[in-house]
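hi! just following up on the protien thing from before. the input was this:
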Amino acid sequence: MNTILLVDDDEYAIGGLLKHVPWTDMGVRIVGTASDGAEGLAKYRELKPDFVITDVYMPVMDGFQLTEEIRKVDPNVPIVILSGYDDLANARKAVSSGVHHFLLKPPSIAEIEFVVREVLQMLNEPKEQDELLASYLQQQDIVKRSMKDAFFRDLITTRYRPEELPVDRIAFMGLPERTTVRALTLSLVRSDVTVRREERDWQLLRFGTGNIIREVLEENLPKQPGLTAEVLEYSDQEFVVIFLCDPDARIEEGGLSFIMRTSNAMMDNILQYMKLSALAGLGTGKEGYERLIDSYLESRSAVEVAEMNEWNRVYSYSGSVKQGAGRILSMDEVRRLHDAIFLKQWQQVEELWCAIKTDMTSGNVSLPVCKGICAGVASALWTALQTSDTQAEHAEAGLEELLMQLGRHGSVRPMTEWMDDILTRLLAQIREEHGGKKSHALVDKVIHDYIEKCYHEDISLERIAASLHVNRNYLSQLFKRVTGEPFVTYFNKYRIRKAIELIETGQYMVYEISERVGFQNSTYFSQVFKSITGYSPSEYKR
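and the predicted 3d structure came back as:
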C-alpha cells in the first residue's frame, strides 16, 4: 500500500482530508501530517512517504521551498500542491518546480481521488513493468533449463552429425558454440535398507543428492574459468553431469584433474550427508556436442568397473580396461556347492567355496552377482543349522541380520573375505552340531569375551548370539552342555563373585556394588546374592 504525507497549516483542512477522502479504498495510507514546511521536510526524511500533498502558503517554509528541499533528497517523488488562491503565477511556479498537480482549495472529493489515482498509476507503472520483466526473465530461465535438459538427454541417447545440431537453439540456451564435452555418470546404490523405505523417502534422498551435486559445482566451478557444467537427472537412480570446456581457454588436459577432484567431492558429500553409496564413472573429453554420446557411453563402462571394485570413488574410463585374467565363474560350481550343503558334504563345501571365492576376487564377477552368490550360500548354510522346529522359529531374524551385514559391503573383495569368515564359523558350528563333538571354542569365547569382560553391562544371550552369528537356542544348549549350567546361572554366579571381591574391600555401599557388577536394581541383586551365597550382602559384610 502506497503512503502519503499531508502538509498544511490549516488544521481544518487536514481534518477534512483525513475524514472525508476514502484513502483506504484507493489503496493508500496517510503516513503522517505536518503544520508547516519545515516540519513537513523533517517528517518526509523520517517517514519516506511515496508522495506528498502540501499547501503553498505556510509559516517557516512554504510549499515551494518544501518541494525544492524534497527534490534534493529524491528528485522523482510526486508532489501535489494545494493553493487557496486562483493564482496563475503559483500554477506556473508549480509546473516549473516539477510539481505533478496543482489543486485549488477547497478541492472536491472527486478531484482529489482523480489526482491521487493518477499519481498512483504513475508510481506503480514502473513497478508493474519491473515485475513483468522479472516474471518474463524467470519464465525464460525455466524454458532454457527445460530446453537444456531435453537437449542433453537427446545427445546422450542419439548420435548426430555436426551439421544436424540446432545452432540457433544452442545460442538461445546460452551454451557455447564450440566446446569440449565430458560426461560423469553417478549411479546411486539402493541398498536393502533404502529399498524397504517408502518411495517418498527415496525421492527426498534423491532430491537432496541433486542439491549436493549442484552445490559442489557452484562452489568449485568459479575456480576454473572456461569450465561449466550441466546436471541431468537421467533416471530414478542416475545423474549425469556434463562438463563443457571452452577450447580457447587452454585448460590443461581439459581440466581433467580439476573435474576429478570436484567429482570426488560430490561422492564424499553424498556419502556423508545422504548416507548413500554411489558408483561413478568419468568419460574422456570429446570435441563437439555430437560426441557427447561417446563420452557418456565411456562413463557407463567406467561405472561397470566401479561396480566390481570399490564404491564411492570416481573411475575414469580407459580403453584398455578389460576383464581380469582369472577363470570365468562357473554357475555349475555354485549349484554343486548348494547341493553339497543340502547333502551335508562339508569337505566338498569347503573345496567348492575356495574355488568360487578365487573366481569372484579375480575381477570377472560384478558386485551384484557376488552379493547374490554370497547371500544364497549364507541362507543355505543357515537353513542347515536349524535342526528342530523350535530353532527354525528363531532363525529368520538372525538370517535377516546376517544378510543386512552382507549388503553393507561396497566391493567384491571385502565382501568375499567377510563371507569366508562367516562360512568358516557356520561350518564349525554345523560340524559340532551334527558330529556330536564338544567344542569349547565358542563357549570359551562367550565366557572370556562377554561374561568376564562385560559382566558390568546389560548383556543377554540373545545379543551375544547375534554378534557371533549363531542361533540363540543352539548357543544356550551348547553353553549348558559344556559348563553344566544355564547361561543365566553361570553369569549371575560370576557377577556375585565379583561382588564379593568388592565387599571384601570395605569401600562400597551395597547399592554401589550392585551397579558395579551390572545389577540396576539393588533389591534384585540382594535376592540373587542370597540365593547363591546363603547370605544377604549386608550379612556377608559382617
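The radius of gyration is 41 Å.
The longest helix spans residues 109-155.
cheers
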